[in-house]
Design brief:
Number of helices: 2
Structural class: mainly alpha
Shape: rod-shaped
Number of strands: 0
Largest sheet: none
């Protein structure tokens, strides 16, 4: 049994290789919109969960006496 040159390997015909219409699954605008929204919400949760506060530090500064009179 010989394979014709036009026969494809099983990997090329798999559902992961191409969508039924031959376009990438991300070409669908609804899928792309949902993906962007999921990434945006995930990023917001990541930023909200970060501990951005820093411990307070005491800063001592020399003040001239003439500035204390005002």
């Amino acid at each position: 049994m010989s394979l014709s040159p036009k026969s494809r390997s099983p990997i090329a015909r798999s559902s992961l290789a191409r969508s039924p219409r031959g376009r990438s699954p991300l070409a669908n605008p609804i899928v792309l919109l949902v993906l962007v929204l999921v990434l945006l919400v995930g990023g917001l949760f990541f930023l909200a969960g970060r501990d951005a506060t820093q411990p307070q530090t005491t800063v001592e500064k020399a003040v001239a006496l003439e500035n204390l009179a005002n």
